[in-house]
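Note to self: user wants both folds in one dump. Writing first protein now.
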Amino acid sequence: MAVVPLDILRHLPLLAASIWFGLVLMQVYRDRTHTWTETFFLFACFFAALYAFSDWLFFNASNDVGALGAARLSLTSVILTELFFLLFTVVYVGRMRRSYWLITGASVPLLLYVWTAMVEGVVRPTPEGLYLPVLDPAAFLVLLVYVTACGGVGVINLYRVYRIVREHSRGLARRAAGLVVTFVTVLFLGMGTNGYLGVTQNTQIPPLFSTFLILVGFMAAYTLYPGGRERISGAIRRFRARRYQIEGVYLVYNDGTLIASRGREGAAGLDRDLFSATLDVIQNFMRTSFPFLRGTSLRTIEHGSYRILIERGKWCYLTVVLSGEENDLLRRQIRDLLLQFEDGNAETLRRWRGIPADAPGADGMLRSLFEPVELFGPAVPQ
C-alpha cells in the first residue's frame, strides 16, 4: 500500500516543473522579456522549474553520484528562485535601483557553499526507496534564513500590490489576495517540511517543497494571465503614474523621419523635427563611436529630472519625454503600443515612402499615453 504514494511523490515534481516551464514559454511567446520586472519574473519561473526538475532527478536517481549532483542543483535553484522572486516584487511595486544588485551579493557565498560543503552526502534508506540528502545543519539553517527572508519580503511586496489593486477593482483584489495567500501557505509548508527535515537530519521523509510549487504555479498563471479584461498591471500603472508627467511623445521611423508627435497641453513648445533629427544623430554617434554597442539601441537619456525613454520596434521607435520617475510598466505600455501600431501598418512601413499620412493610427496611439490608465479594455495587455 505504501508503494503507490511513493511512486506518486517520485514524479510530482515533474508536474511542478512542467507548469513553471510553461510560464517561461508563455513569457517568451508574449514578448515579456524587455523590462527588469519581466526579466526577473522570467528567471524566477525558470529557476523554480529547474528546482522542481532537479528534485525529480534526485528522487529518480539510480546512483549516489547522480543523486548528489541533483541535490546540489536543487539547492542552487531554490536560492536563485528566491533571489529573482524578491527582485521581481521589489521592482514591480517600485523601480529598478543599482543598490538592488547588492542583494545578489548575499547569495554568492551561499551558492559556493552548496557546491562545497553544505550537502555532505545522500542516503537511501531502502533499495526501493527515494534518495534523501544529508546536509550540514548549521549551513542549512543559514539557507533557511535566506529563503525565509527573501520569501517574506516578497510576500510583503505582493501584499502592497493587493492594497494598490484593492482601490480600483474587487475582482483584481481577489486575484492578488489569492496570490498572497498561496505564497504564504507554500512558504509556511515548505519551511515546515524541508526546513524541519534538513535541520533535524530526518532521513525517513522526502522533502516536499518542490511539490508545493504546483499550487504557486497554478495561482501565478491564474493571477498574471487572466482570461478577463481586467489587468493588475493597469492598477499598478495608474498608481505609479502619480510619480511622473509625460511632456511629449514622438514616433520616428528608423531613417529619422518624424511620423507623429504630441506634447502635453500647456507645455513649452519644442521643434519636433529638430528633436527627432537630433535624437537620431545621438543614436548613430553612439553606435559609430562605440563598436561594441552595435546591435543594441539607446534606451534612456537623463538630464536632471527629465528622462527620454526610447522603445524600438522593427521599423520605428517611440520616444517619450517625461519628468519624474519612470517605471517598467510604463515602458511595457510604450512597447505594446508601438508593436500594435507596427502590426496595423506593416505593409506601409515595409515600403515606407516618408509620408506620415500613409500610417494611420499614430495620433491616437500617442494621445492614449496622455490619457488615464484604464483597468479594462485591450489597450495594453499585461
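First done. Writing the second protein, which came from a different request thread.
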Amino acid sequence: MRYHRIPDESVRRLPLYLRALLFATHDRESISSGALADVVGVNSWQIRKDFSYFGELGTRGVGYNIEKLKKHIRKILKLDVLHKAVLVGAGKLGSAVLLHRGFSVYGFDITAVFDNDPKKIGRKLGDTVIQSVSSLHTLKRRNIDVGIIAVPGDVAQQTVDALVKTGVKGILNFSPSYISVPKKVKVLTIDIAMDLARLPYYMPRNHGAG
C-alpha cells in the first residue's frame, strides 16, 4: 500500500506512537488520542491529524483499539515483514548499534557485520562473525535490504556505493558526511553531535556566561 502527499513529520512520528503502544499500554485494550498524547508528549489533535492521513483508525467516543492500531502502523511503515540488515563498521559506535536490543522489536535483524580492520575480521561481535568489507558483494544472495554504516567520513561514499550494488534499498548513515545515492535508495543520516548542537538553542540562556 502506498500513501501519497503525507508530511514527513507525520511519518516520523509514527514510530514514536508505535513505541508507546508497544511499551506503555499493557493494561488496556483501547486508548484515546488524549491518553496517547500524555505518553508521547504530542498534542492529541496532532495525533488525530497524523492518523487521519491513513484512514479511519479509531472510533469516536471509544478511541483506538491498541492491537489493531499497532498492526496498522506496522503495515504503514512496512514493518509487518522482517527486514534483514547489514552493519558496516565494527568500531565502538557500530558495536553499540549491533548490540542494541531494540531493533528486533520493530522487525529488524542485523545478520551480517563487515569491517576493514584485520584484527577484527573473523572475531565475533555478539553472535555475529565480523567479515571483511572486501566480501560485501556476497550480500547479493542474502536478501538483505537495509544497510547501516558506522564508518569514517572519508570512506562513507564508497561503502554506500558497494551496498547499493548489492541491492540494499535503505541506508541508516551514522557517518558525519553527505552521501549520494540513486533515487530508488533512501538514506537517513543520524549525526549525534549535530543534534546536540541544536539543543542549547532551546535552553534558557545562562546570563552569567560571558
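Dump finished. Worth passing along: The longest helix spans residues 8-23.
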